[in-house]
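It would be a great kindness if you could assist me with a short task in structural biology. The matter concerns a single protein, recorded as an amino acid sequence and a row of backbone structure tokens. Could you please explain, in whatever detail you think fit, how the structure tokens follow from the sequence? Thank you for your consideration; the sequence and its tokens are set out here:
___
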Amino acid sequence: MTLTESEERFRLLVESVREYAIFMLDAEGNIATWNAGARRIKGYDAEEIIGKHFSIFYPEKDLRAGKPEYELRVATDTGSFEDEGWRIRKDGSRFWANVVITALRDSRGFLRGFAKVTRDLTERREGELRTARALERERRTTERLRELDRLKNDFVAIVAHDLRSPMTVVQGFADMLVRDWSRLPDHQRQQFLESISRNVSNLSRLVEDVLQVARIESGELRYLIADVDLGSLAQRVVADLTPPDTPGRIHVDVERGVPSVRADERRNWEIMSNLVSNALRFSPPNKHVVIAVRSEDDMVRVSVTDYGAGIPADAFDQLFKKFSRIEDRAVKREKGTGLGLFICKQLVEAQGGSIRVDSTLGEGSIFSYTMPIRTPAESLSVLLVVEDDEDMRELIRHALDADPRIEIAGEASTAREAIDSAKEIRPGVVILDHFLEGDLMGLDAAPLIKSVSPNSKIILFTSHNLEMEAQREPAIDEFLRKEYLPKLLPVVRRLLGLQ
């Protein structure tokens, strides 16, 4: 066999290999040859890629860092360069590549070009990432279980006490009524029955608060966002809560012309009722309570003022936590469930508002919260991208840059970050990957995101075939595979009503 025949056979061998992209670069990095494996892996035909610089395969981040030039420089100096990283196909999708670049020199040592061999290791890489994420989830889950175990013990201790105490009272008075009904005077029967009624009400409130916390934390609580007149709602709350024996104890002060807010009316009734009930409970009977409604920039603020004993400043941070109760004997007039203010905080923040307390010992307290006059979600160009891979985030940015009306106002790499960001910016659309860093996956996070940003549309955007799972999850509005990246912009436009 002649040298020419041997070279021809070798050329045919290289060109027919499909498992590896094998091609030549000239000394400047321009593509000089192309084989079947390169076409399969990268998606280009020979006639459209030969003559182009090989940096065409690199993500924008690597181009900015000068990575293609660096690889050629190392191969020139040391003879070869090997690396693994994300590369871009013709259709814009990415794959995880093992790359070997070898410098080619002639018999005199002059650089003639480079041989480049690329292998698609995407499946292996995704397997490694899944394993790493599973281990991280396991670690975080273990930590959460320890924390949940601690909270469970606290919960059981508090709830058991709060259940046992009124139940003991109810049982005791009920037994006395059954045993001694005929010889008890009417006024004492009335007293015992009122005690039973009061303790049953306390039990009912505790059970309802516990169930509400469970709904909030599971993401099952839904919000119906509409125009709400908080002034009129305050009047209703006063009518519902004014004690029959002290009419006029609750004063209402509504600013003239205060605008409506975009919020959930029922949840706002819960918030106001809770704050007013607390104010009545912690105020002396001869002191009135004031509920005021005022506009404040792009928000409306509702304030509930009492003239009770006040709250110590060092207790402020604890007030809005679960099972938090003020320990100051001068302030603790009557126990609540320890859940009311926690529930208020969750309901307020889920609707785009904030809640705070101002208090002076001996003078009283002001609990106030805000609701948005216009939800940020009505600025339909706002998006939140939830993706733990920077290169994929860059591709999403690039894909959406084509429409100047669309603004990416937030990005997150974990589900927990996404929930916090969604609560703050109330995005019109959330582009959500499934496999994320941390203890929550995308499908698990979707209902939690919806619970804090009810108007957001969620696209599950993943490399994996989770269409059936996405259809079963009510919080997911669209499902799209990452290999169909060019379809992302039309889907986002449709969900935002920008078509």
User: Anything to note?
Assistant: The two ends are 65 Å apart (CA to CA). The longest helix spans residues 122-180.
